[in-house]
Design goal:
The structure holds two protein chains of two kinds.
Chain A: H1 2-20, E1 25-33, E2 44-47, E3 53-55, E4 61-66, E5 73-76, E6 83-85, E7 92-97, E8 107-109, E9 115-117, E10 125-129, H2 130-134, H3 141-144, E11 152-156, E12 165-169, E13 184-187, E14 190-192, E15 219-225, H4 228-231, E16 242-247, E17 253-268, H5 299-303, H6 314-317, E18 322-334, E19 338-350, E20 357-370, E21 375-389, H7 393-402, H8 427-433, E22 435-454, E23 457-476, E24 493-515, E25 520-545, E26 556-581, E27 585-596, E28 605-615, H9 617-620, E29 627-641, E30 652-653, E31 667-668, E32 671-673, E33 680-693, E34 698-710, E35 713-717, E36 726-730, E37 733-749, E38 753-770, E39 777-783, E40 791-796, E41 803-809, E42 840-849, E43 854-864, E44 867-877, E45 880-882, H10 884-891, E46 904-906, E47 920-922, H11 937-941, E48 951-953, E49 956-967, H12 970-973, E50 980-993, E51 1023-1033
Helix pairs in contact in A: 7-8
Chain B: H1 2-12, H2 19-26, H3 40-65, H4 87-110, H5 113-134, H6 155-173, H7 192-208, H8 218-226, E1 236-239, H9 247-256, H10 266-272, H11 284-287, E2 329-333, H12 335-346, H13 351-369, H14 373-381, H15 394-404, H16 410-417, H17 447-452
Antiparallel strand pairs in B: 1-2
Helix pairs in contact in B: 3-4, 3-5, 4-5, 5-6, 5-7, 6-7, 7-8, 7-12, 8-12, 12-13, 12-15, 13-15
The chains are: A mainly beta, B mainly alpha.
Chain lengths: 1034, 470
């Protein structure tokens, strides 16, 4: 080795000698990136003061003649700090360019995959790089955004493998309870489908949002476009914002191989507080066959006479340690004319609830071909297979509630395969045999052609498709025909669901650049955009298996089918004019007209404009040195929105009970779509500023925004007596306003050690401005609570989205309870009834609001030589949720506070007349010490019936992610066959601080597609995880 | 393949300029899943099916008030006569009435008078059922989307409409038709004579509801009875299907699956097992299930099951019984019911006819259930049942009709006309205190109406009576 090196040095010296004698000296060398020590192709090298220079080749190498020793070489490359070097008499110069993190140099990808200088934008955008995405080891790209982007609220629906995550940008914009308020996802310029298809009328299964199909390791960057201005060019589909994903591309140069392996483990991050004293039975009586899990005798007392009778730690025993194995390999490379990137990945995940699992395999190939200086061509194909077994988590957890604390839940099966039980259904048995398998096969592909006949004109055509089939099979077995068995269902059923969805996108645009003078430049883009979604779903349902344990539609004696077909087309024409004056004043005007197939012909064409202005005042005027960059932004935009297909007019439908006796019955569909339906309109304004101080070591980015969505297309609930129940029409307005603040700082920045902090903070306020004359409220959803404690999320004029209504304790008002009381005033004294218990008020009052008013996150990144350490803390505040677990736990004597069941209490409050309550009551079941019969007791007769008891503060602070990694340093790397090597350990959600009693309050049962986020349901518990990762590069 | 090609062409030809091509391209919004029109035949299939379903739906609300059923849970709102919002039942009733109004209109324009007549009879039945539980309801401004907030019509005026619909229905069924009903009629399989008898039977039923009012006219009722059902074979009922089980069977199946429901009230058990009346009714085993020990044990309304386990210790609906088997019929109107109407109407004008009709009503119901002839005879011959014309009272009619109308919503009309004076009938435990010790007299208007049509919804309480009950 050493010899080779010596020989090399000699050869180099010879060249050196030779070159020194040339008249014009030739200098050679290589430019590498400080990011990953790899060669940088395409770096501009200019001899200062001249127009002479060169560009580095695919490996970052260059060769250049310089006139004399005093020449200065300028190395510049987009996204990197420019460097000047005087070679003097050196013949070989190796340059390391450092990435430039200042806003001035940053390029972000906006609409249609167009790269734009961030500096020029008149609206807020925020970008995450591949490292920020993969560092959290979230397998769902939506979850990877969590806590990292201002104005963007991401909520994991739960901890199931592959379970959906919900993303909302700047608040909910629609009054329609079934609207998808999530942004458009765009991969390499082509929108993809991110729907979550969860059947709302059946038990939740924790299904995936379709963006979870994307392998995060393939992503180069994600840009979040928040405002209407940013998304005006994507049209109606981006009315809720857009997440622009750019995938990794090959680079010219040697073929590179990257291998990434992760092994992870997860467990429940938080359990509710439960009592461990009382066992199975009711009224304090021991009964080992009872339905009642925890209202029985004290366990310790029974254990004296019943050997082995003990508290089983069922909640923890029923849960497994989840685990995941994720392997991916990517290969990339190319030359000046063609590059490619290919990857394979495989993820296997097993969840904490037994038998819940999900896997994902992906294969991706993308390539770029430069046919000539005028013409290039690129394309990519991504194949994904994903799916798994989705346990019925709500039902599992509900059955956990019913399962007696003194019966071992993990002992669930008899040798003959029937359920082992004392009477209640065993949740683990149900999770194992009530299966729900989904199998998604998906292809996302796109092709792009770029033709640039002259310097100032180019044409781009991009066509893409997103096709998937989702094949679902749900089976619940019937009886096995064995005497004494307790079957999961008395007849059993199978449901086969086949979903096929295909998106086609076509986008053609022309770009004209004109430099009117050195100071004034314009870019005009004009284009056409076509979208089509073709969706079809077929369900076949069979009940009553004729052969036990043989699950096939052909062997079910009752069959019913249903079919749903939908097709939507959109055509858009758009123009986008950008004016740049002297690199400090940027004006951008856009206009778009859309034609939608979903609206009536007379109203299906709609136009909407936007204008935004960016003013970099730090370049227009002189400022003190501490201000390195300053910009003001302002934007105004209107966005139109169409609706779902096939909604107009009246139709008749055959219910899925038919055919019966060979007859098919028809009934008028209770939905009537306004034949005069108009497009929705959202108007938004935004002001912001970005300031960088102390050589960009401190940055502030502040945005204020307000958006109003008018003429909302909503299903207005109308009197059933009209002949319809729902009238789809234009009605109502909703307003969102808020602020976003980003702080970036680099307290330490030296060659060996750096420390960077990013803080984001968001506030959103929402108001339902109006609904429609005569319509008082729109119900978004409701969730069951025992005996009148069911809570409802309703939209009411003048109130914000997300209010939770429910029953409460009667409060004392000296002058009588005011009429039209809407909010619970929890500070007032309770009114205690003649029986000594607080009086329940069944009138539905606002008990809380499920949309957090404040949320944000802080990321710290520290680098010391090869070591890097980072942690992300995120929080949400001012948010309440309905805790359905707690409602059940009080009803079944499981909650820790039900330990007070044998106490006597004087409830704090006043009598109806206002005098302090002094009456003593017993909280237990049956006849109390005072001789009074208290029936089922305080918790069942009173406590569980009051929603107020279960609507809790759901704020939290989470250590979302902490990660420590080590990159093998060049000295050590040389001794290995690797170009790069990294090991890292990551932990997620290991610290959770919240006033909430229960599982992680982040979980909710509706799934990402549902808007009823204020209900935890009996959702899949949140998890914490620990992951080990190894990256190797060749 | 051809489709892909077609789409590729669409996408390859961005309709930049050619707006007419765009119009075709975008003209794909016709609903591919649902037709915009339905035939009278398809509407009849659904209307006859939904008539049975709605009879069940209302029955499942009223059966706890009548203490046929009791909730296994203490203080359940269905038992204790709490104010409950029955949004779904209201919706289903209006759905059926909307379809019927479309069918009547369409049949009229087609000259399909038999469909028109059957539609009018079912419309009268629905409207009658609506008024009997809710009182004033929207009708004259209903079904055709004339307004977003239809007005409520007076309940007494709606009774006039019920009777005129029945008359119109009978007359249309008696005239020529362009299309004949057949297997699309789940009630009678297209037998027009039976439909006409059904129309007359319903006339008798709704006229008999007026027993508390000055308009009560026994002669008119008996005239309708004379043209009504002539035996159990005329019963208006829908026999359920292999593919779709009887809804009470589903309650029984769910209960067996521990989704609890269909528990029998102690009141009903005691009324039939000899406790209350001293005579054991042989129908009991045909109607409800026994405990694991083979006994009939009811649940006290409002008290819940207490310490009783979820299965095996109380009587519930079970599959295999007459009312709750998979392919059991849902009874809409029966010969037995008509006999009790006859008995009640004749009581003051022809007591012999009344007494014979009362006994015939019992026999008809027992035969319907499949009770053996010896058991029928034994029961009928019991002096507590055949007390003789002299000792025969109106109470006997209501007592026996109560058993014969098991689970039927019509029984609640009887109970209110009779002021719940059944022997041994008491308020449920934990009864809704807002009723002030009274029995419930109507249903509350559903929340859906209050929130969508609030200004028109009458302000009533659960003790306010329907017009015929005042």
């Amino acid at each position: 080795m050493r010899r080779i090196f010596t020989a090399f040095a000699i050869i180099m010296a010879v060249f050196h000698f030779m070159e020194a004698h040339a008249q014009e000296r030739t200098i050679s060398g290589r430019v590498i990136s400080a990011e990953d020590n790899t060669g940088l192709p395409g770096v501009n090298i200019l001899i200062k003061g001249t127009s002479e220079g060169t560009v580095t080749d695919t490996e970052g190498k260059f060769r250049l003649s310089v006139p004399d020793q005093n020449a200065v070489l300028v190395f510049s490359f987009v996204g990197f700090e420019t460097q000047e070097v005087q070679p003097q008499n050196r013949a070989v110069i190796n340059i390391t360019l450092r990435p430039d993190y200042t806003e001035m140099a940053q390029v972000v990808v906006t609409s249609f995959g167009i790269e734009q200088e961030k500096k020029s934008l008149g609206y807020a955008v925020q970008e995450l790089g591949s490292e920020e995405i993969t560092k959290t080891k979230q397998q769902n790209v939506v979850s990877a955004l969590q806590g990292q982007v201002a104005g963007v609220q991401v909520t994991n629906a739960g901890g199931a493998p592959g379970q959906s995550a919900r993303i909302i940008i700047r608040g909910v914009n629609s009054l329609d309870p079934s609207a998808d308020n999530q942004p458009l996802f765009v991969v390499d310029g082509v929108p993809i489908d991110n729907s979550t298809i969860e059947d709302s009328d059946r038990t939740p299964r924790g299904l995936s949002n379709r963006a979870a199909d994307i392998n995060p390791n393939d992503i180069e960057s994600m840009t979040v476009l928040k405002g209407a201005a940013a998304t005006a060019l994507y049209g109606v589909r981006a009315a809720n914002g857009a997440v622009i994903i750019t995938t990794k591309k090959g680079r010219a140069g040697a073929v590179r191989v990257n291998i990434n392996s992760t092994v992870g483990f997860e467990e429940v991050n938080r359990y509710p507080r439960i009592q461990e004293v009382y066992g199975q039975g009711f009224s304090g009586q021991y009964n080992p066959n009872d339905f009642w899990p925890s209202w029985g005798a004290p366990i310790a007392a029974v254990a004296d006479t019943v050997p082995g009778y003990q508290f089983e730690n069922n909640w923890e025993d029923a849960m497994n340690t989840g685990r995941q194995i994720d392997n991916s390999v990517s290969v990339s490379g190319g030359n000046e004319n063609a590059t490619f990137y290919g990857s394979f990945s495989r993820l296997d995940q097993k969840g904490i609830i037994p038998f819940s699992e999900w896997d994902r395999s992906t294969a991706k190939l993308s390539g770029d071909i430069k046919i000539s200086d005028q013409f290039n061509f690129s394309g990519s194909v991504n194949y994904i297979n994903s799916g798994g077994n989705r346990v019925p988590h709500d039902r599992f957890m509900e059955r956990m509630v019913y399962w007696a604390a003194t019966q071992d839940v993990t002992d669930y099966i008899n040798p003959d395969g029937t359920m082992k039980t004392y009477g209640n259904t065993n949740p683990i048995y149900d999770a194992r045999f009530s299966t729900f398998q989904d199998d998604v096969n998906r292809v996302i592909g796109n092709l792009m052609l770029n033709y640039k006949p002259t310097e100032w004109l180019s044409f781009t055509y991009r066509v893409g498709t997103d096709y998937y089939s989702d094949s679902r099979t749900e089976i619940t077995p019937g009886p096995m025909g064995i005497d004494g068995e307790l079957p999961l269902s008395s007849i059993g059923f199978i449901r086969e669901t086949r979903i096929n969805s295909r998106d086609l996108n076509s986008n053609l645009f022309m770009t004209l650049n004109n430099e009117f003078s050195e100071k004034f430049r314009t870019t005009l883009r004009v284009g056409n955009d076509i979208f089509e979604r073709d969706y079809e779903r077929v369900d076949a349902y069979g009940e009553n298996f004729v052969i036990p344990n043989f699950y096939d539609l052909s062997y079910a004696s009752q069959i019913s089918n249903s079919q749903d077909k939908r097709k939507r087309r959109l055509v858009g024409l758009y123009g986008d004019l950008m004016l740049d004056y002297d690199n400090f004043l940027f004006l951008n005007v856009t206009g778009r007209n859309d034609w939608s197939s979903t609206l009536p012909e007379a109203n299906n064409s709609f136009f909407y404009p936007s204008v935004n202005l960016g003013f970099v005042f730090s370049e227009a005027f002189d400022f003190p040195r501490f201000l390195s960059f300053g910009k003001l932004r302002a934007s105004w935009a209107k966005v139109g929105k169409d609706t779902d297909p096939h909604l107009l007019g009246a139709t008749y439908a055959a219910s899925d009970v038919y055919p019966l006796n060979g007859q098919v019955g028809f009934s008028r569909v209770s939905r009537f779509g306004d034949p005069e339906l108009k497009p929705e309109e959202t108007y938004s304004v935004e002001f912001g500023t970005n300031l960088q101080f102390l050589s960009n070591r401190l940055g502030v980015d502040f945005t204020w925004y307000k958006s109003n969505s008018r003429n909302q297309i909503i299903p207005v609930p109308i009197s059933d007596a009209t002949g319809y129940s729902v009238y789809i029409t234009n009605a109502g307005e909703i307003e969102n306003r808020g602020i976003e603040l980003m702080l970036t700082g680099s307290p330490i920045r030296s060659s060996d050690f750096s420390w960077d902090i990013t803080v984001n903070l968001s506030n959103n306020n929402n108001t339902v401005v109006n609904i429609r004359e005569g319509i008082d409220e729109i119900v978004v959803g409701s969730q069951f609570g025992y005996v009148g404690s069911t809570v409802t999320m309703k939209l009411v004029e003048g109130e914000p989205y997300g209010n939770i209504y429910g029953s409460s304790y009667q409060r004392y008002y000296p002058d009588g309870t005011p009429e039209n009381l809407t909010h619970l005033d929890a500070d007032r004294p309770l009114v205690i009834g003649a029986n000594g218990f607080p009086i329940r008020n069944g009138n539905q009052l606002i008990l809380g609001n499920a949309i957090p008013k404040w949320f944000g996150g802080v990321r710290n990144t520290l680098n010391y030589k090869g070591l890097d350490f980072s942690f992300l803390v995120d929080f949400r505040a001012d948010v309440e949720q309905y805790n359905q677990y707690d409602n059940f736990f009080s009803a079944f004597g499981i909650a820790e506070y039900t330990l007070a069941r044998n106490e006597t209490r004087v409830f704090n409050g006043v009598t109806a007349e206002g005098s302090p309550n002094t009456q003593e009551v017993w909280l237990g079941q049956g006849v109390g010490p005072d001789g009074v019969d208290y029936g089922a007791g305080y918790y069942r007769n009173h406590y569980r019936s009051v929603s107020e008891n279960f609507v809790h503060d759901a704020s939290f602070i989470k250590l979302r992610n902490i990660s420590l990694g080590y990159n093998l340093q060049p000295g050590l790397l040389d001794a290995t066959p690797f170009r790069s090597a990294r090991i890292a350990v990551t932990a997620n959600n290991i610290i959770l601080y919240t006033p909430w009693d229960g599982f992680d309050p982040e979980s909710f049962s509706a799934g990402a597609g549902g808007n009823a986020v204020g209900f935890t349901g009996l959702g899949y518990p949140g998890v914490r995880s620990l992951l080990f990762t190894l990256n190797l590069g060749f | 393949m051809k489709r892909i090609y077609k789409n590729a062409i669409y996408l390859a030809l961005p309709c930049l300029l050619v707006t007419s091509a765009c119009e075709d391209f975008l003209d794909i919004n016709d609903n591919p899943n649902n037709p915009t029109e339905a035939s009278v035949s398809g509407l009849l299939v659904n209307s006859t099916f939904e008539t049975a379903q709605n009879t069940y739906r209302l029955g499942s609300i009223t059966s706890n008030y009548l203490q046929y059923l009791a909730s296994p849970n203490q203080g359940s709102s269905s038992d204790i006569m709490d104010e409950v919002s029955h949004d779904n039942t209201w919706l289903n009733m209006y759905n059926a009435m909307t379809d019927l109004s479309v069918m009547i209109e369409q049949a009229e324009s087609n000259g399909a008078s038999h469909y028109q007549g059957a539609g009018q009879i079912l419309q009268a039945l629905h409207l009658g059922m609506m008024v009997d539980v809710w009182g004033d309801v929207p009708y004259s401004e209903a079904f055709n989307f004339e307004t977003l907030t239809p007005a409520y019509d007076d309940d007494q005026a709606l009774y006039t409409e019920v009777l005129s619909l029945l008359d119109a229905g009978i007359s249309n069924l008696s005239s020529e038709t362009t299309i004949s009903m057949g297997n699309d009629d789940f009630i009678y399989g297209g037998d027009v004579d039976k439909w006409i008898k059904f129309g007359n039977m319903l006339k008798a039923r709704y006229l008999n509801h007026l027993s508390k009012t000055a308009a009560y006219n026994p002669t008119e009722i008996l005239a309708a009875v004379d043209q009504g059902f002539e035996g159990n074979e005329d019963d208006a009922q829908v026999v359920y299907f292999e593919e779709e089980f009887n809804p009470w069977a589903n309650v029984a199946i769910n209960n067996a699956d521990l989704v609890l429901g269909g528990w029998i009230s102690e009141q009903f058990i005691q009324a039939t097992d000899g406790t209350t009346f001293g005579v054991v009714d042989p129908r009991l085993p045909y109607m409800v299930g026994a405990t694991d020990d083979g006994e009939y044990v009811g649940t006290v309304n409002g008290a819940g099951r207490g310490n009783a386990p979820a299965a095996g210790a109380r009587s519930t609906l079970v599959t295999g019984d007459f009312y709750s088997s998979e392919q059991s019929p849902v009874l809409i109107a029966t010969y037995a019911e008509q006999k009790f109407i006859e008995a009640e109407a004749a009581f003051t004008v022809d007591k012999e006819r009344s007494y014979q009709a009362y006994l015939a009503g019992i026999r008809a119901h027992m035969r319907k259930l499949g009770v053996a002839q010896e058991a029928i005879d034994a029961y009928i011959n019991n002096p507590l049942v055949s007390m003789g014309m002299a000792d025969f009272t109106i109470d006997d009619i209501f007592r026996e009709k109560y058993v014969a109308m098991f689970l039927h919503p019509e029984a609640w009309v009887d109970a209110r006309r009779y002021d719940y004076q059944y022997e041994g009938f008491t308020l449920p435990e934990n009864a809704n205190s807002a009723l002030g010790g009274e029995f419930i007299r109507r249903l509350a208007y559903p929340d859906s109406e209050v929130s969508r049509n609030g200004r028109n919804v009458p302000d009533v309480s659960l003790t306010d009576r329907i017009w015929w009950d005042e």
